[in-house]
Structure formats: C-alpha cells, structure tokens
Amino acid sequence: MKSKTVEVEGYTTLPVQLPTLPLFPTLATHYLYIRPHEPRIPDPDSTRSLFIVNVPIDTTEAHIRHLFGTQLAAGRVERVQFEDVQTKKRAVATTETNLTQSKKKRKRETADDFQHHLDNITLPSTWDRKLQKSGAHAVVIFADKPSMESSLKAATKAAKRGTTIVWGDSLPSDRIPALGLNRYVAHERLQYPDRGTLLRTVNEFMTTFTAVSEARKREDHKRLAVPDEDGFVTVSHGPKLNSAAREDEMREIVERQKKKAAGLEDFYRFQSREKRKERQNQLLRNFDEDKKKLAEIKARKGKIRPE
C-alpha cells in the first residue's frame, strides 16, 4: 500500500511499524520526519547529516544504524546525536570544544559563565539505556555526503512504495540493552557509577565552583573601585570577620576600655572623700563586731570546764 503523504513541510515522511508487545499484540504505525540537517550555525558535519523528528522513545544508535544501513541499505552512519542523550563520541567532542574555547577565552570568562558551566555539570547516569522523550529529534551524521543523500532517497522511495519497515526488526538483541523489568534489574546492579567517571565529575564540579567564587571576588573588587555618582570610591580592605572573630574583637575592646578607666576612678576630689568615708565606716563596723565577739568570749570564760 502506497503512502498518500510523502513530504510535509519539507520533511520526508517515513512510516515504520512498531513491533508488538505481550500487553499490546497489535502493530502500530509510527512516522519519522526526515530532512537534511540545516542548523542556524553550520558546522563541518551539517552537510553530511540528516535531521530526524519524532523518533520512537526506545530509539538507540543501534536502531538508527540498522535502519539506514540494513533495512534501507543506503548509507553508513558514523554517529548519532540525540536531543537529550549524548553518545560517547559526542561527549568527547563537546569536552574538547569546551577546553579549546576555555583556553581561548580564559581571560574574558565571567562568573556567570562559570556558573552556567557549573549548573550543567550532572552526576553520571546509572541507567544502561536512556529513553527518549515523546517527539524527540536526532541528528544522524553519515560517513560522507553521498551516503546522506542516498539514505534520504531510499527513505523517500520506501515511503512512496509503501514498503513495510518494522522498527528494529532482526536487530541482534545483544546490541541493545533490554527494556521493561530487565532494565530496572540492570539499574539495581549499576546503582553506583564507575569510580573514575564519578571522580572526574566531582573534580570538575569542585574546580568550577572554586572558579566561580574567585571570579565573584574579582568582580566585587572591580565594582568597589569604580567611583559612584558623587565621585566617591568605597574603600574596603582586609577579610570580613565571621561571628566568632567579631566576638573576640569586641571582648578585646571591652578589656582595653576597662584598663583605661581603671586610672580615672579617683580623678575628682569628691570621689576621694567618698572613698575615705567608706573606708572609715567599714573600719568602725569591723571594730564594733570585734568588741561584740570579745564580750561574748569574756562572758563564757569559766563556765566551760574540761572533763
């Protein structure tokens, strides 16, 4: 049966049959929308790439390679870049690009640039297979431009002739991780990511975090050195004190004030008179207490006899 609609808004429509499942034993038709990749900012690979929209949620790189290399028998796929999932080659290429750009723009990077990079650092995934979101797209990079063009022509012919293409048909099971319960069982085994990968991720995060802090400090110092509207410059020096250091500093200030005030107690004449009177009264009180004690001792004399 021939397809009525082959091209939609510049996309070649390729219908594929999704395989049956135990809980859904009916074939379902899924449509792939394919066109040459034309990004806003062209790159060296865009001339030999195809842009595919609405890939199935279980799509892997093996599915794409099998579709164009075996089922359509058109061209050789070099790599696939998914919307959310990075392949190993893409991750390496992205890392090398970031390192090159960072070396070129190291002096011009701001704290916001480091913060953006910090926000994009995530822990390595423990899933052995990622699922695509509904309606996701992918970029398929072929070995050369003729392979891309022949693959697009083969997809167009298959759509016009109504060729039945079963998604992932005869694809070896050892080339793709399992789905369903087996996927969750594998996730239980791989709960902890590879130690080397985890260490690299944590080191990258801490290095970027330190770079953000240092960049913020540099920007704050530059901002303070700029005169305000009235022409004044805010002068700031020395580290900021935390609560413990501030308490120690206040305690030292209080002690110094006490030492300074110690020599000023008898500065005025009335203060000296008051102190002399107080000492005299204290001596009189002590004398009266001693007289009472002496009288009590004399009263008890001779009344207590040893046995």
UniProtKB/TrEMBL annotation:
Q: Where is the Ribosomal RNA-processing protein 7 C-terminal domain?
A: 190-306
GO molecular function list: nucleic acid binding
UniProt GO cellular component terms: CURI complex; UTP-C complex
Domain of life of the native organism = Eukaryota
Q: Which family does it belong to?
A: Belongs to the RRP7 family.
Provenance organism: Penicillium bovifimosum
Q: What is this protein called?
A: Ribosomal RNA-processing protein 7 C-terminal domain-containing protein
What InterPro entries has UniProt attached to this entry? Answer: RBD_domain_sf, RRM_Rrp7, RRP7, RRP7_C
Q: Which residues form the Rrp7 RRM-like N-terminal domain?
A: 7-184
Picking any one GO biological process from the record gives: ribosomal small subunit assembly
Q: Which Gene3D superfamilies does the record associate with it? A: 6.10.250.1770
Cite the CDD domains for this sequence.
dRRM_Rrp7p (cd12293), RRP7_Rrp7p (cd12950)
Secretion signal: which residues? none
